[in-house]
Amino acid sequence: MVLLNSKEGLIKAKRSALTPILDLPFNGANNSTSFTDIAKGKAISRQNTIISTAQSVSGGSSAFFDGVSWLSTPDHPDFNFGTGSFSINLDCWIGNSYTNSTRTLIGKSNGGSGERYILSIGSNNKFIFSRRNAAGTSLIYLESQTTISLSTWYNVKASRSGDVSFLAINNTIEATANAAGVSVFGDGLFTIGYLGFAGFYFNGYLDNLRIEKA
Q1: CATH at 64
Q2: Which domain holds residue 203?
């Protein structure tokens, strides 16, 4: 494993050239149903997800997903990263009902077997970022060394700099992959806590979701 601050040049992804495309701090009053993107003002739709003050990393609140709830925003070119640099960064707390099954943190899918990418917790209880084509073949696959513990906050970051993709947990790089020539994009809605074609609902809290791209 590599500490980010010891190999900063590896994953900074030319940070000064990255533009925020979605920034959800999940701030608000307890039980609020309002979710505000402070990057570009994208419309956020909700299915039972609420703001909760029970858990947070910063700001005193986070988004609570009960295992059948989710957030989404319409398809937009911002969420197709192509072969450029990008960064997906969030904090997550896994609920007690989580047991050995895939859970979506964020994903982009058309509700069928189209092109897609997903940042998730796998059935092996590890964090996974994958980019799959319409046939289901993994073009990029990153799996954490960390095995999750319940009721624990984790910072999760999937990123790309040049031809290399990275997965970092709590500021430590745990996986890398050659992404040369692979275009990272997906069909359909961008979803949080749920993946369009398969469900894979998340149970727990998310905080500080920020996505940037070149």
Answers
A1: 2.60.120.200
A2: 2-213
